[in-house]
C-alpha cells in the first residue's frame, strides 16, 4: 500500500544511525521565543490573532485521511474556499486537488511547517496527522515520531504564531483502569497503546501550553468515527465502517471484534460539526480545554442487527483479531460528554438508526451511479 510505503520510508529516515551506532534525531533543536505571549497566570487569556469579524485562515494537517477532506469542505463553505488549506504527505486525488488549496506538509519538518504558516498567514491550525491505534501498534517508532515529535512541532509553531490550535484526542486516551461505562472527562488515563499514550501526551502538553504560554488549545476526544465517502485509517473501530461496504458489495461481513464489544461511536457529520463548534466557541464558554463528545454506543452485534433490518440477507461472521480486541477491551464502553453539552451546547444529530439509514443510502446510490456509468 502506498501510504504504508511512505510511512515506512519516513520511519527509516527518523531512525537512520551514523557509523557510531548512535540514534540521531533529525528534528531541529530550537528554543521558543514567546516573549510577546507570556501571560502564564491568566487562564482566560486567548490568542485570537484574527479579528473576530474576519474569517480565520485555516491549515489542516494530515488532511487526506478519513476526516480531513470532509472538514475542509465544511470549513470552506463557511469561511471561503481559499481560506482553508489542506495538507498531507500523500498525493491528493484529482477531486481533492481541484476543490481548494492543497499543500505538501510533513509535520516532522518544522521549518517547512513554519514557512507554510507564515506565508499563508494561518490563524487556525487543525492538526489531524497521526498514526491511529492499530497502525501505531504495528510501527511504534513511527507512531512515536508522528504523534509525539510531530505534535511538539505543531505546539511550538502554534504558540510562536498565536494560532488557535485544535488537536483531536480519542477514546483510546483511556485504558483498562479508567471507569469504562461511562467514562468522564477527568479520570485515570493509563492507555496501553502508543496511540493512546501519545494522545494523553497531546492533551497534557496542549493544556500546559495554554496555561503556561496562553496558547488557544482546543481538544475533543472523538469516539470511533463512521463515514461513507472516506476510508478509515487503521483504528480499532474500523469494523463499523467496513460492515456497510461489505454488506453492499458481498452481503457477507467478517468482524474482527467480538460481537459484544461495546464502544462509543459517531457519524462523521456530527464529528465535523462538533469540531467547528468548539473552534468557534467563545473562550469564556470553555471551562476545560479537552472535552469528551459522544453520540451513541453499540456492539458489533447490535450494529449488524440494525443493518439487517434493511438487508435481511446480510451474513455476519466473527474472526477476532487478538490485538484489536485487546485494545477495544481497554477502551470506554460509553462516553460521558455532559460538560461539552453544558459548556458550548454540544448536541449530536445522528443515532444508530439514522446512521445506518444514511450510510446505506449513500453507498447504494454510489453503487447505482457507478453501474450506470
Ligand atoms: N477516525 C477516527 O475514528 C478518529 C477517532 C478519534 C480520533 N481521531 C483523530 O482524528 C485525526 C484524524 O483522523 P483520521 O481518521 O482522518 O486519520 P487517518 O489515519 O485517516 O489520516 C491521518 C493522515 O495523517 C497523514 N500523516 C501521516 N504522517 C504524516 C506526517 N509525517 N506529516 C503529515 N501528515 C502525515 C496520513 O498521510 C493521513 O492522511 C487523528 O489525529 C486521529 O487520531 C480519529
From TrEMBL:
Pathway: Amino-acid degradation; L-threonine degradation via oxydo-reductase pathway; glycine from L-threonine: step 1/2. It is an enzyme of class 1 (oxidoreductase). InterPro entries: Epimerase_deHydtase (IPR001509), NAD(P)-bd_dom_sf (IPR036291), NAD(P)_epim/dehydratase (IPR051225). It catalyses: L-threonine + NAD(+) = (2S)-2-amino-3-oxobutanoate + NADH + H(+). Its EC number is 1.1.1.103. Coiled coil: none annotated. Residues 58-293 form the NAD-dependent epimerase/dehydratase domain. Pfam families: Epimerase. It comes from the Eukaryota. GO terms for biological process: L-threonine catabolic process. GO terms for molecular function: L-threonine 3-dehydrogenase activity. Belongs to the NAD(P)-dependent epimerase/dehydratase family. Catalyzes the NAD(+)-dependent oxidation of L-threonine to 2-amino-3-ketobutyrate, mediating L-threonine catabolism. This is L-threonine 3-dehydrogenase, mitochondrial.
Amino acid at each position: 500500500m502506498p501510504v504504508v510505503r511512505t510511512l515506512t520510508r519516513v520511519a527509516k529516515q527518523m531512525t537512520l544511525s551514523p557509523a557510531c551506532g548512535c540514534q540521531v534525531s533529525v528534528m531541529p533543536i530550537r528554543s521558543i521565543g514567546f516573549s510577546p505571549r507570556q501571560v502564564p497566570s491568566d487562564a482566560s487569556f486567548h490568542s485570537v490573532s484574527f479579528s473576530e469579524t474576519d474569517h480565520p485562515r485555516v491549515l489542516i494537517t494530515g488532511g487526506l485521511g478519513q476526516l480531513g477532506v470532509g472538514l475542509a469542505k465544511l470549513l470552506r463553505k463557511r469561511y471561503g474556499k481559499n481560506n482553508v488549506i489542506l495538507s498531507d504527505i500523500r498525493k491528493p486525488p484529482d477531486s481533492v486537488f481541484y476543490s481548494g488549496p492543497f499543500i505538501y506538509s510533513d509535520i516532522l519538518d518544522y521549518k517547512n511547517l513554519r514557512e507554510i504558516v507564515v506565508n499563508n498567514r494561518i490563524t487556525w491550525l487543525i492538526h489531524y496527522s497521526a498514526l491511529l491505534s492499530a497502525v501505531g501498534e504495528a510501527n511504534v517508532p513511527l507512531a512515536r515520531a508522528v504523534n509525539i515529535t510531530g505534535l511538539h512541532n505543531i505546539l511550538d509553531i502554534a504558540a510562536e504564531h498565536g494560532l488557535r490550535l485544535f488537536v483531536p484526542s480519542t477514546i483510546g486516551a483511556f485504558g483498562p483502569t479508567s471507569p469504562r461505562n461511562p467514562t468522564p472527562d477527568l479520570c485515570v488515563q493509563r492507555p496501553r497503546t502508543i496511540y493512546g499514550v501519545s494522545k494523553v501526551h497531546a492533551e497534557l502538553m496542549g493544556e500546559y501550553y495554554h496555561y503556561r504560554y496562553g496558547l488557544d488549545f482546543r481538544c475533543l476526544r472523538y469516539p470511533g468515527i463512521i463515514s461513507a465517502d472516506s476510508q478509515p485509517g487503521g483504528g480499532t473501530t474500523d469494523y463499523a465502517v467496513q460492515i456497510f461496504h461489505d454488506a453492499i458489495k458481498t452481503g457477507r461481513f467478517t468482524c474482527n471484534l467480538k460481537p459484544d464489544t461495546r464502544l462509543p461511536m459517531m457519524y462523521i457529520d456530527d464529528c465535523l460539526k462538533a469540531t467547528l463548534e468548539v473552534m468557534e466557541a467563545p473562550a469564556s464558554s470553555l471551562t476545560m480545554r479537552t472535552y469528551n463528545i459522544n453520540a451513541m454506543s453499540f456492539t458489533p452485534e447490535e450494529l449488524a442487527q440494525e443493518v439487517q433490518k434493511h438487508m435481511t440477507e446480510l451474513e455476519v461472521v466473527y474472526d477476532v483479531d487478538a490485538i484489536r480486541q485487546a485494545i477495544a477491551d481497554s477502551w470506554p464502553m460509553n462516553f460521558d460528554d455532559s460538560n461539552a453539552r453544558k459548556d458550548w451546547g454540544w448536541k449530536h444529530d445522528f443515532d444508530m438508526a439514522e446512521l445506518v439509514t444514511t450510510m446505506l443510502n449513500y453507498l447504494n446510490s454510489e453503487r447505482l451511479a457507478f453501474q450506470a456509468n
